[in-house]
Amino acid sequence: MLTDTLSICEEAADHAAPADALPFRFSQRRSIRRYLDVPIARSVLDALIDAAISAPSAHNRQPWRFAVVVERDAKRRVAIAMGERLRADRRRDGDADSVIDEDVARSHARITGAAALVIVCVTMADMDVYPDDTRNRAEYLMAVQSTAMAGQNLLLAASAAGLGACWLCAPMFCPDTVCGTLGLPRDWQPQGMITLGYPANTGKPFTRRAAPDVSRFF
């Protein structure tokens, strides 16, 4: 058995593609926040969801859910509701109205300017339940990790399809607002919002810490 396994590994190594031949050029992905006023075909959106759900998941429970928002009025309602919540939170923080107005306007433009929004949600409906908080917490984190991997798949697929995309964490600060505005099922917990569209610019180059700075080999 061990000999067979080693043989398979050696054969795979012989046929392994070089690093620069990866199907996605990860270094070319950008967070795009401005889009052309061009709709995305339903077939393309379906393909993005298919890419997302090919991600691995804890126990293969697939705890991800996606609310895809394409109607202009729905995007507008989401933007207004989230903007009102943002304004209320920032006022409680004591921020200046002028600064708040700028942030709310920027948020509104990003949401309504996208051809589509994907609200990435997690559900615990099919996850395991334990008699102790420690394992229940771990189970929840496993579900969130699984959902995040699906979101990354979607971002990479969007880039490969020539679309721009940006992950926004804002729904984490107002999940009840997002769910109520869209009428999402009660077990859908928003984890982020991906804005999608054909890019109006190339985005800003990003910098990353070098691999040796964030990794250790043992």
Write a short abstract of this structure:
46% of the residues lie in helices and 12% in strands. The protein is of the alpha+beta class and 218 residues long. It has a domain at 35-71 and 117-202: NADH Oxidase (3-Layer(aba) Sandwich), CATH 3.40.109.
Topology:
Elements: H1 2-14, H2 42-52, E1 64-69, H3 72-92, H4 97-112, E2 116-122, H5 133-160, E3 164-168, H6 175-182, E4 189-197, H7 211-214
Antiparallel strand pairs: 1-2, 2-4, 3-4
Helix pairs in contact: 2-5, 3-4, 3-6
CATH architecture of the domain at 35-71 and 117-202: 3-Layer(aba) Sandwich
Distance between the termini: 26 Å
For CATH, the homologous superfamily of the domain at 35-71 and 117-202 is named as NADH Oxidase
CATH class descriptor name of the domain at 35-71 and 117-202: Alpha Beta
**Would you tell me the overall average pLDDT?**
90
Order of helices and strands: HHEHHEHEHEH
Range of strand content = 5-15%
Number of strands: 4
Q: Write out the strand line-up for the largest beta sheet, numbering strands in chain order.
A: 1-2-4-3
Q: Please tell me how large the radius of gyration is.
A: 20 Å
What are the segments in which pLDDT stays under 50 over at least 5 consecutive residues? 1-17
Please work out how many helical segments DSSP would assign.
7
- Fold-level CATH name of the domain at 35-71 and 117-202: NADH Oxidase
Question: What's the shape?
Answer: globular
Structural class: alpha+beta
Largest sheet: 4 strands, antiparallel
What proportion of the residues is helical, as a percent range?
40-55%
